[in-house]
Amino acid sequence: MTDSNKRPLAVFDLDNTLADTAHRQHFLERQPRDWDGFFAAAPADPPLPQGIALVLEHAAECEVVYLTGRPERCRQDTLDWLSEQGLPEGRVYMRRDNDRRPARRTKLETLRRLDRTRDVRVLVDDDELVCVDAEQAGFTVVRARWTAPSAALKNAQEREGRT
């Protein structure tokens, strides 16, 4: 049962939705993939203006929540990055460090948990499989299509459960 006395939630992904990961894709294009390097470079991600604008637009009516496939060990870097961009404070849901399930499973699980007590107004994400599963579950989705798709990142999200 949702709590109608609280503002609805607007849920935002980070990588390639709010943060441009293009400069760190090279860490995923080698074998073995350099996950430590990939995540260590995240604080230098440039903001994506379209995503930032959507967060600020939704913040007028919604509580903003961040839902990322980044591992929990990246929490402080992530919080610092969000603050540096001037984004609204909000809960940040991250993947457990040892959780290797596909992003579409972990994110949908979190969305359903949030939806039990709050109205989830929108999910904004770049991962097509996350978007399809969320829509099939009844959520309103905005596809973040303002960056070039990365095959390496898609593989990481779906097959390796890394982001």
Order of helices and strands: EHHEHEHEHEH
Helix-residue proportion: 25-40%
Please, how many helices?
6
Name the average pLDDT: 90
Unreliable runs, pLDDT <50, ≥5 residues?
A: none
The neighbouring-strand order within the major sheet is 3-2-1-4-5
For the termini, the CA-CA separation is 30 Å
User: Globular, elongated, flat, extended or rod-shaped: what is the shape?
Assistant: globular
Number of strands: 5
Query: Could you describe the largest sheet, including whether it forms a barrel?
Result: 5 strands, parallel
Structural class: alpha/beta
What is the CA-atom radius of gyration, in angstroms? Answer: 15 Å
Strand percentage lies at: 15-25%
Features:
alpha/beta; 5-stranded parallel sheet; single chain; 163 residues; 35% helix
Structure overview:
It is a single chain. By secondary structure, the chain is of the alpha/beta class. The chain is 35% helix and 16% strand. It is built from six helices and five strands, in the order βααβαβαβαβα. Strands 3-2-1-4-5 form a five-stranded parallel beta sheet. Helix 4 runs parallel beside helix 5. The longest helix is centred in the last third of the chain and has 13 residues. It is globular. The termini are far apart. 36% of the residues are buried. The model has no long low-confidence stretch (mean pLDDT 90).
